[in-house]
Specification:
single chain; 205 residues; mainly alpha; Arc Repressor Mutant, subunit A; 2 domains; 0% strand; elongated
Length: 205
């Protein structure tokens, strides 16, 4: 891990432990083992560090999605994949994505930080809403809309269909965040949720 990567890693750890507002550039530099002026050679501000962390998260997700043979952020591409996917494969994909969000250390620390800071910082509250509500619902809404147009799914209310799919998954994720011993239970519920969603909305593959 080079110095730039160590700065991001240590900054994210500090943000998740103390909260974004309570961490200063000097704190990050000290944790990395360098002086603040040296840190500024890599990132001009704490905000720049935060923005870089977001980019790393996007990159890590894209890499994981690619390893699972989906785009993850392109509804047009993924609709063609999902419409022919067997239910067993869909369940496996859902579990793998869930486990990524649950166990990827970078993603987990970022979620912990935003969960805390959403109540203290309006700008971070907006990041939280974008990361865990607006963006997932936008992508899944577009995906489900395409699948409805293609006759793979059936509904007269795509926004509600999208909530039906996403809300339980995020709920199960928060349960595991707070009580890791319930992971197996939540994975079983996730599998049943995906199967029931297929049944309710008429996907027959």
């Amino acid at each position: 891990m080079n110095t730039k990567e160590r700065i991001l890693d240590e900054a994210l750890t500090l943000f998740s432990e103390k909260g974004y507002a309570n961490v200063y550039v000097n704190d990050i530099a000290e944790r990395v083992g360098i002086k603040a002026p040296s840190l500024y050679k890599h990132y001009k501000s704490k905000q720049a560090i935060f923005d870089a962390i977001l980019e790393v998260m996007r990159s890590r997700f894209k890499e994981t999605a690619g390893s699972l043979n989906i785009a993850g952020d392109d509804a047009d591409t993924d609709a063609d994949i999902y419409k022919t996917m067997k239910e067993t494969d869909l369940v496996a994909l859902g579990k793998n994505l869930f486990l990524y969000y649950l166990h990827d250390d970078y993603t987990k620390r970022f979620r912990k930080m935003l969960t805390i800071e959403q109540f203290h910082d309006e700008s971070l509250s907006k990041v939280y809403m974008k990361q865990y509500f607006d963006d997932p619902l936008s992508y899944q809404g577009m995906l489900f809309g395409l699948l409805v147009q293609q006759g793979v799914l059936k509904t007269d209310n795509i926004p509600i269909m999208t909530l039906h799919f996403y809300a339980p998954i995020y709920t199960l994720l928060t349960v595991c965040d707070r009580d890791p011993s319930r992971e197996e239970e939540c994975l079983k519920l996730l599998e049943e949720h995906i199967k029931k969603f297929d049944e309710l909305y008429g996907r027959d593959i």
